[in-house]
Amino acid sequence: MLKEILKILEDDARTTPKQIATMTGSTEGEVKKIIKQAEEEQTILRYKTLVNWDRVDDEHVSALIEVKITPQRDVGFDSIAERIYRFPQARTVYLVSGTYDLAVIAMCKSMHEIADFVTQKLAPIEGVQGTMTHFLLKKYKEDGEILEGGEENKRQPVVL
With the C-alpha atoms ordered 80, 132, 104, 68, is the resulting torsion angle positive or negative? Predict the structure, then answer.
C-alpha cells in the first residue's frame, strides 16, 4: 500500500489522507500512519509545487551544465557533487554516464549570472576538468506535467 500512496502523492501532493483512503480502500487512520512513517524515514522528503515560471512576470534563465570531474580517492564523485549541490543556483545535480560525470540544472536571473556561476563557482573547484553549458530555451514538459498546450488533464475528480 505504501507504493500506491506514494504514487498518489507524487501525482498530486494536495490529495488528502481521506481521499487517499477512498482511492485505496483503506482507512484514513492507516493512510495517515503510513504517510507519517514515510516522512520520518525520509521516504517522503518534502511536498512540492510545480510552477511554470514562464507564466510569472519574473525573469529567469535555466541551464543544463555538464561537468567533467576527476573522482577523488575514497569518495569518488560524491565530494565534488556535494560542493556543487550546496550552491543555491544548482537546482538539481545528477551523476550521469557518458562523456561528462555530473548534470547540473541551474536557475539564475540572467545568462550573465549563469556564466558567472560556471566560471566563478563551478570551474575553479579542484577536480573539475571542464564544463559544457546548455541554456534551456523552452520547457514543454516538467516532472510529468505538460506545460503549454498538449492534452487537457483527463483525471476524474474524486467524489466523496
Answer: negative
